[in-house]
From TrEMBL:
Transmembrane segments: none annotated. Residues 48-67 are annotated as: Disordered. One of its GO terms (molecular function) is hydrolase activity. It comes from Punica granatum (Pomegranate). InterPro entries: Metallo-B-lactamas (IPR001279), RibonucZ/Hydroxyglut_hydro (IPR036866). It comes from the Eukaryota. SMART domains: Lactamase_B (SM00849). The gene is LOC116213672. Keywords: Hydrolase. Residues 111-314 form the Metallo-beta-lactamase domain. This is Hydrolase C777.06c isoform X1. Pfam families: Lactamase_B_2.
Length: 351
């Protein structure tokens, strides 16, 4: 199978430290978009597989020889974060979850939703980030040193809301001080948004020469499988509010859907035989116009039947311990293995 990996541009101001499982890409599967070769703008590539294999046993999903892959939950909360400042300053009402969230080590303390996949494949290890939201710096500050994470070998974007892309500017610390650049995989509609929200990262001709913003290599993804550092990612298109598309991703037998209000019929087949489902569950009582609430999320779990489910994207009405106690009962009554995730959770996975 011929795979496409984003090429890593050399940069005169940096020395590459510890390259991880990178290799040159076959040119045949790369299509450059838009900008002329002499443009200071970032090259934009289309990412794809050369064949349509989605769930085969191809070598690109080789399992770890010595060390297991894992998922680290960088954030499991809503856009404003938990605790909410407004709850802590409310003189009329004491929000129980937000006040618990202030306590050190509280599992109710949640930053913007995102995960880091530490993948150990046939060609070594790589750290693949899904989303870098507004609070990415704070998440990374907390978990990268604690877990010995150095490089960011790729970023994959679910959608272009601020809690998914607001941290792209913070990636400059990596591309200035750790590695020359970071490949980023993004749907065309979200890339169009980034041209406005992060215009100076997309088009570096607008910045003062010498200024060192994040050096991102943009790869446009479509709603079909693509390969990042030897691992196949299958987009899971979902609705995140009426007529707004977001992407979940399947890698190995893990399905990650962080922002969803409706799963289209055509996406369900992609969720079959799922070992671990990580899915949006905003609040305990009902869904919102843009997110599943707990009742709907549970109905979807009953339909998808993964072996294990972890909910994410919880707002301040979701008390970690209380909701988890309730979820535990579903194992006895329905045989469903469901828990809430929490920031910093490390989940060993076989990919
Ligand atoms: Zn609150
Ligand atoms: Zn969103």
């Amino acid at each position: 199978m011929v795979l496409f990996l984003g090429t890593v541009r050399s940069t005169p101001r940096m020395t590459l430290l510890a390259p991880i499982s990178r290799r040159s890409a076959p040119a045949t599967s790369i299509m450059r978009l838009g900008f002329p070769a002499s443009s200071p703008r970032r090259p934009v590539l289309r990412a794809s597989l050369s064949s349509g294999s989605v769930t085969g046993d191809d070598a690109s999903r080789g399992t770890s020889q010595n060390e297991q892959s894992e998922i680290i939950f960088m954030g499991t909360g809503t856009s404003e974060g938990i605790p909410r400042v407004s709850c802590l300053t409310n003189p009329l009402k004491k929000c129980p979850v937000c006040f618990k969230a202030v306590e050190p080590g509280s599992k109710n303390r949640r930053l913007n939703t995102g995960i880091l996949i530490r993948y150990t494949g046939l060609n070594g290890k790589s750290n693949i980030l899904i989303d870098a939201g507004k609070f990415f710096y704070h998440s990374a500050l907390r978990w990268f040193p604690a877990y010995g994470i150095r490089t960011i070998d790729a970023v994959i974007i679910t959608h272009s809301h601020a809690d998914a892309i607001g941290g792209l500017d913070d990636l400059r610390d990596w591309t200035n001080n750790v590695q020359p650049s970071i490949p980023i995989y993004v749907a065309e509609r979200d890339f169009e948004v980034m041209k406005k929200t992060h215009y100076y990262i997309v088009d570096t001709s607008v910045i003062t020469p010498g200024a060192a913003v994040s050096d991102l290599q943009f790869n446009i993804i479509e709603e079909k499988p693509f390969v990042v550092h030897d691992m196949t990612f299958t987009p899971l298109p979902v609705w995140h509010g009426r007529s707004y598309r977001s992407l979940g991703f399947r890698f190995g037998n893990v399905c990650y859907i962080s922002d969803v209000s409706e799963i289209p019929d055509e996406t369900y087949p992609l969720l079959e035989d799922c070992d671990i489902l990580i899915m949006d569950a905003l609040r305990p009582d009902r869904s919102s116009s843009t997110h599943f609430g707990l009742p709907r999320a549970l109905d979807e779990v009953r339909k998808i039947r993964p072996k294990r489910t972890l909910f994410t994207g919880m707002m301040h009405l979701m008390d970690h311990d209380i909701v988890n106690e309730d979820l535990k009962k579903l194992m006895e009554t329905e045989g469903l293995n469901i828990q809430l995730s929490y920031d910093g959770l490390r989940l060993p996975v076989t990919l």
